[in-house]
Specification:
By secondary structure, the protein is mainly alpha-helical. It has one domain. It is about 65% helix and about 5% strand. The chain is built from six helices and two strands. It has a two-stranded antiparallel sheet.
């Protein structure tokens, strides 16, 4: 004599129940594009000086005898506008790197690949020159006039 469980296991109903896809309770998996964007945005915020801005509440512009200063003269502090400028330059550099990466996908369209590579390189160079200019202003600007 077979049990009820054995009869259900080998019947058509048992096979259909085994093939039934019951959703499992699990964690939500976010999209990789969204996760990458959030990580890049947080990195830009931290590297651009956003944490310093939140903790220290710096001024946007500094008064001096010759007018207003956009960039703090010295390496140990920064203005709010300077951190926004840094975040913008970081965004330009990352966008340029991404455009250069995307140019490799057009191997069979050399003209489009070259244009994208050139645009990406220009964005990276603008970013580097912007950081160099900001560093030059930080090191060579004095608040006192002689």
């Amino acid at each position: 004599m077979t049990s009820l469980a054995d009869r259900l296991r080998y019947s058509g109903i048992g096979r259909r129940l085994r093939k039934l896809n019951i959703p499992r309770v699990g964690l939500f998996k976010p999209s990789t594009v969204l996760l990458t964007g959030i990580i890049i945005a947080v990195s830009i915020f931290i590297l651009g000086g956003g944490v310093f801005d939140l903790l220290e509440h710096p001024l946007a512009l500094l008064p001096s005898s010759s007018g207003w200063l956009f960039i703090y003269p010295g390496l140990y502090s920064q203005t709010w506008n300077e951190s926004i400028f840094s975040m913008f330059m970081l965004t330009l550099g990352i966008a340029g790197t991404f455009v250069c990466y995307r140019s490799t996908r057009y191997a069979f369209k050399p003209k489009q690949a070259t244009v994208l590579l050139l645009i990406g390189t220009v964005l990276i160079v603008i970013s580097i020159l912007g950081f160099e200019y900001a560093l030059y202003l930080k090191l060579n600007t004095s608040t006192t006039s002689a």
